[in-house]
Amino acid sequence: MSNPYALPPLAALDTATLAWRRDDTEQEAPHSTVFDDVYFSRHDGRAEAEHVFLHGNDLPQRFAAWTRSRPFTIAETGFGTGLNMLCAWTCFERHAPARARLHLVSTERYPLRREDLARALTAWPDIAAKAKRLTDQWPDPVAGVHRLWLDDRVILDLHFGDSVTRLAQLDGRADAWFLDGFAPARNPDMWQAPLFELMARKSRAGATFATFTCAGVVKRGLKAAGFDWHKRVGYGRKREMLAGVIDAPRDDTTRDATPWYRPPQAKPPHHVVVIGAGLAGTTVSHALARRGIEVTLLDRHAPGAGASGNRQGALYIKLAADTNLQSHIYLAGLIYSQRWLAELDPDRTLWQDCGVLQLATSDRERRRQQRFLANHPLPAEIVRPVDASTASELAGTPLTHGGLDYPQAGWVRPDALCHHLAAMPGVTWRQGDVDDLVRTHEGWRVSLTDGAALSAEHVIVATAWQANTFRDLSWLPCQPIRGQISSLPLPSGMTELRRVVCAGGYVPPAFDGRLTFGATFTPNDADARPRPADHEANLTELERTLPAYVAELHGAGALLSPDRLTARCAIRAASPDKSPYAGPVPEADTWRQAYATLAKDATRVPPVSGRYHEGLWVTAAHGSRGLASAPLCAEVIASRLCDEPMPLESSLNDHLNPGRRLIRDIIRGHD
Hints:
With 671 residues, the chain is of the alpha/beta class. The protein has three domains: 50-246, Vaccinia Virus protein VP39 (Rossmann fold, 3-Layer(aba) Sandwich); 259-307 and 416-478 and 581-667, FAD/NAD(P)-binding domain; 356-407 and 479-574, D-Amino Acid Oxidase, subunit A, domain 2 (D-Amino Acid Oxidase, Chain A, domain 2). Strands 6-7-5-4-8-9-11-10 form an eight-stranded mixed beta sheet, sandwiched between helices. The mean pLDDT is 94.
C-alpha cells in the first residue's frame, strides 16, 4: 500500500458509473457498475439511513443536548448520493438548539456527476431544497477537500479520494461516524485495518459509530483500533447492524515529525478584532461573523484602501509545472473562491466568472504549460489547453498564441467586495490606526493612535506587508511589492473582450466603460506614487499580449500615451516562498530555543510542541493572487479558532503556518 500520509497529486478523479434500476414499486435507484452494489435500498433507502446512521449514533438525543460552542462533527466513509448527510442535516434542524452548529465530513473515491446526484435525490421531495443546495455547489471531480456551506449553521467538507488517504490527511476529529460504503465483500480495499486505525486517531473521546454491516473483518478491525461495538437490530431484510463507541481515541501522530505545527488549543471566542480591511481582513471577518462571532474590523483608512482597492482584479492562478504544496493551496483556493463568490453574490454584481486565458507568449512558457498539463490531469472544467484559434474565439479578439484556459475563473471588483464584506451582519467597521498590541490577562488590548483602546479575546493581523511592524511579528518576512495598473475610457464601438487575458500582466473585459490593464511588479519598493514609466511598461505588455486589440484601439481613436492614462498604485505583500501566511503566531524566541538542535541535524526533532502567542493570528502575503487565496485562508483561521475540521489537508495547513519561516531559518542556521 502506498503511504496514506502522502499528499496525492493534483488530478481528476473517475466519476461513478451508474445503472438505474427500478423495483416492483417503480422506485428508481442508482446502482454502481464498478462495485455491483446499490447506493441505497430501493425499498426505503432513507428509512434505512435514518435507522442505521442517525439512530445508530443516537443523534436526535445528542443533537438536542448539544450546547457547545464548537460544531458537532460527523465523519463518513463514502458520500455516495449524500443521502446520509442530508438526513443528518434534517435531523439536526429538527432537534438541535438554535445556536448549535453542525460540521459534516465525508470521503468519496468516485464522486457522482452533478446530474446523477440530482436524479438520485429526486426520490424525496421533502428534502428537495436541501438537495438543491448540495447539487448547486457540487464540485468538479478533483482530488482534495471541497468546502460547501449548506446553510449558516451547517458546513460540509467533501474529501474526494480514497477513504484511507483522505482520512490520513484530515485535520480534525469526529463526534460520530457513519461507517458506510459498498459492502465489504464488494469493496474490500476500503474495509481494512488502516481505515479503522485512522478512525480511532480522528475521533474525539466518546465518539460513536454505526454501520449497516456485521462482517467479521469490520468487527475485528474496530475492536483492534479501540472501538467497543455491539449488535443492534438491522433494517428491513438485514437482521443486524453494528454500533459502538471509542472512549480513549488513539493519539494522532500526523505531526510527530513536525511538532511545531501542533495547533494551539482552540476555544471559540465571543469577540475578535481584525486589523486591516483589505481582502485578507474582510474575508476573515466575514468567515468569523457567519459563525456567530462578534468582529470589530479596523483600518487606518477604509475597506479596500490599499492593494485590495482596485476596481478590477483577476481571479486566477498560475500553477507550477511540477506539483508542490503552493499549487495545491492555490488550486483549492481558486475552486473555493468561485463557489464562495457564487453564494455571496449570485447576481454577479461584484464579479464575473467569464473565464481566464493564460497565454503562452514564449517557447519557455509553452514548454512549462505542456509539462504542467502532463503532470496534472485535471478536468477540462478547471483548466484545459487551447490553441491560438480557440483562444481567439474565447477572448473575442484575434490572438497570436494559445495557452491554458480556466473556464470558471474570471475577474472581481476587490474594492466593492471589501466594502460589501465590511458591512455584513456581525462585522463592525471602525476607522483607526493601531499604535500598540499588548497581551493582557483577559486577552488583547488594541491601542489606537487617537487614545482609544479595544479589548478582544483574539486579534487577527491582516495588514499585508506591514504585518511585521507589530513586535510579536517582527521576525515574519513580508516583502513589499509595488504594482501599478493603468486604465483608459474605452472608445465606443470597440470589441468587448469576453475573457480575462493574462500573459506578463492581465487585461479583464472592460467594466463601466473603462479598460484596465497591468500590473507592474517591483519588489522591495513601497512608493505608491504613480510613475509614467510604469504606464509605458503596461502599454508595452498590453500590445505584446493583445496586438490586434491595441490596433483596434488606435483605429477607434484611443489615446494610448502615458499622460492620457489613469493610474492606481498600491503595495502588495509576498513571502519568500510566495505562499501566504494563515495561522497562529509562534513565540519566535521560544521556537529558536526549543528547536535549536535542528541547526546541527535536521533529523533530530525535539518532541516539543510549538508554543504560540495565545489568541494572536495572521493572514498576509497573498501577493497578486489574493482573490484565490484570501477566502480559503479565512476559513483556515476561522476553522482553527473555532475548533472545527479544517478546509485543507494537514500538510497544506502546515505549509500556511507562518512558523514555517522560523523552522527554515533555524535549520539553515540563520538568526
